[in-house]
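Thread: Newbie trying to understand structure tokens

Hi all, I'm a second-year student working on a class project, and my supervisor (Dr. K.) asked me to get a predicted structure for one chain before our next meeting. I've only ever worked with sequences, so writing a 3D structure as a token string is new to me. If someone could post the tokens and maybe explain what I'm looking at, I'd be very grateful. Here's the chain:
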Amino acid sequence: MESKTIAKIAQIASCLEVSGFPKPGNVHRTRDYDDMVFEDFLISGVVIGDTIREAAENVDENDLASAELGKYILEAVKETDNWIANNTNLGIVMLFVPISVAASISEKFSDVRENIVNLMENTTVDDAINLYSAINIADAGGMGEQDEYDVASENANQELRNNNQTMYDVLKISAPWDRLANELTTTLPVCFELGYTEYSKLKKETTLNMASVLTFLKILSEVPDTLISRKYGDEKAEEVSTQAKELLSFKDSDDFINRLNEFDDYLFENKLNPGTTADLTAASIMITLLDEKFQ
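---
Reply by user tm_fold:
Sure, no problem. This is what the structure looks like when written as tokens:
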């Protein structure tokens, strides 16, 4: 697929995800937060386009290490930082870059998932260093505090080089407690088997807005959000997932929208932000759009 098409798909997916409302616990078109607003996310979705296009057009499929995934994650975060004061899209970028590069070297949609796996397994130490820089610029947690390869450590880069730790390696360390790291070091099971399956079906049955919201709820109901887990513990994350599952059981009822708004208010008032679920939803939308363009 052409790199310019992939870049447009990434931009569209970003904007569709954040436009979903009410998307419980997250910024959306009728809900701003004190430190970030709806328009921040729209801008973020637009400004990553050039970086996604460059990443998709500069890979040698015979030398997957040349993809430089970490470099493009860092460049996308830097470009976002030029326009937005907060971390709005680090997680999305971490998913979008390998998906985009994989799409660019795939002849058909069924090749994309395997190519993501191959790209991740061929990442380099430089990719890891660039990922750490991106995380620090975005001022994002998630890698976890640890004795080795602590993202906030002044010696992190040297430790990575001394121990030949690639981006895949450091994400593998974080995979037990970070869903995005887990996705990127397995086969993106949530994005491909849950989110993409749900969104592609819903897109044919309902509005684009409701397709995004219901896909978000579906993922949240089955996959406890690790951003909530890190802030408030696994038990609270499980509780939120249970609430999402219960809410989905009313999706065909007349009062579903009222219940949806109530859930959004509850999460917002209790500072329970399923941000990882939003990232997974955005990637699921992108994968669906790629599938449509491959057909």
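A couple of things are worth pointing out once you decode it. The chain has 16 helices and no strands. The longest helix spans residues 275-294. Feel free to ask follow-ups in this thread.
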